[in-house]
Write a structure and sequence with these properties.
The chain is of the alpha/beta class. The chain is about 50% helix and about 15% strand. The protein is rod-shaped, with a radius of gyration of 43 Å. It holds the Pfam family Lig_chan.
Length: about 400
């Protein structure tokens, strides 16, 4: 049987509902306005003198730091007073600003170390003077082309390239201190022989020096001694001792003429060899210096030259001046820059650049950074900032290295 209804329960239920609604209404404004609550908390913190540091968003959105490997390749990468500069460095700094990233340069010594730094993870990418080739593309990824260039040939710069090779050889001999000393010794020897023959012949009846005046007799004998060098002496001494001395002198003249002819011939040959390279078609069969582990080595080997690898361009050019290689072949920008710098023997660059090739920024395979770098690099080309950087180092508003 249902319990009888009482008025007391009916009065309690509405009171509970009202109390619940009042509590909910008081809580909703605080939850619905977090900005006001945060403002009150910030004001309270400031009034209490408590520093909370930078907001959380600033602490978590610091710029990325990318490790960039590089090595000296003037004028693309140079180091002076502990700071890096050059075309590649300026270009990368512009890309980094475009991407909003920081750079930590990883300095290495040569090109193999550059590849090693990227492959073993010590660097995120690499920039210097890295040619894009099919073999390298199989192991790494490259950016779009950052510089179009080629190879050039350097030979020693002759002080005077005018005239024939024989004329240049004669000038080279006359400018050699040792050769001049030998000539002075030869002149003294001729005077000594002439004086001795004159002294022996001056009193001999019918002798070469039998002249009214002693000076005339000595001049005649001196002319005879000089003519003997060219085997043109027609008169011979009359005294027995003078004839014995003449035999020795004639053999000496033969040896002196042979020595002079050999020196002139060898110097002329060197001059012809120096002028024999006028382009890449003249390289086959010759020893050509270059920097080891670069695309220049492969080019020389493929075109029947004998590549001689060196650790640096400076060493290759030193070998060129020493005569151990006939020419130096290397990247056009680096070779042109080196040829214009003081402090070393002058070089002569042969012809325009050949074996066109492209430089790129090196990445590990499938690196997602490559797309971002490509976008930034293309943006620099489109808005003209690339041309400004290029002109700063090569003096031309183009993406292709010109001869300087």
């Amino acid at each position: 049987m249902p319990r009888p209804f009482t008025g007391r329960r009916r009065a309690v239920a509405p009171a509970g509902v009202v109390a619940f609604c009042l509590c909910l209404a008081a809580a909703v404004p605080v939850a619905a306005d977090p900005l006001r609550a945060e403002t009150r908390d910030t004001a309270r913190t400031a009034s209490e003198g408590v520093s909370e540091g930078p907001p959380l968003a600033l602490r978590t959105n610091d710029p990325e730091t990318w490790r960039v490997a590089t090595h000296p390749v003037p004028p693309l990468v140079m180091e002076a007073e502990g700071r890096l500069r050059g075309f590649s460095i300026d270009l990368w700094n512009a890309i980094a600003r475009e991407l909003g990233v920081r750079t930590a340069f990883v300095r290495v010594d040569d090109l193999p170390a550059l590849f090693g730094a990227v492959s073993d993870g010590r660097a995120d990418l690499a920039i210097a003077a890295v040619s894009i080739t099919a073999e390298r593309e199989r192991r790494f990824d490259f950016s779009v082309t950052m510089l179009e260039t080629g190879l050039r040939i350097a030979v020693p710069a002759a002080p005077d390239a005018t005239g024939s090779a024989t004329g240049r050889a004669l000038r080279a001999l006359l400018s050699d201190a040792t050769f001049l000393q030998v000539l002075l010794g030869l002149a003294a020897l001729i005077l000594a022989v002439a004086a001795l023959i004159w002294w022996l012949e001056r009193r001999h009846p019918g002798g070469m020096a039998a002249r009214a005046r002693p000076a005339h007799g000595f001049a005649h004998v001196l002319w005879w001694a000089l003519s003997s060098l060219a085997a043109q002496a027609e008169e011979m001494p009359r005294s027995p001792l003078a004839r014995a001395i003449t035999v020795v002198w004639l053999f000496t003249c033969i040896a002196l003429v042979a020595w002079f002819t050999a020196g002139l011939t060898s110097t002329a040959t060197v001059e012809r060899l120096r002028g024999a390279i006028n382009g890449p078609q003249d390289l086959p069969g010759k020893r050509v210096g270059t920097v080891a582990h670069t695309t220049s080595v492969a080019y020389l080997a493929d075109h029947f030259a004998t590549p001689v690898g060196f650790a640096s361009l400076e060493e290759a050019c030193a070998a060129l001046q020493a005569g151990t290689v006939a020419a130096v072949v290397y990247d056009a920008p680096a070779l042109s820059y080196y040829a214009t710098q003081p402090g070393h023997a002058p070089l002569r660059l042969i012809g325009p650049a050949f074996n066109r090739q492209a430089y790129g920024i090196l990445f590990a395979a499938n690196d997602p950074r490559r797309k971002r770098v490509n976008q930034a690099l293309l943006g620099l080309r489109e808005d003209g900032r690339y041309d400004e950087i290029y002109s700063r180092w090569f003096g031309s508003e183009s993406g292709e290295a010109q001869d300087r």
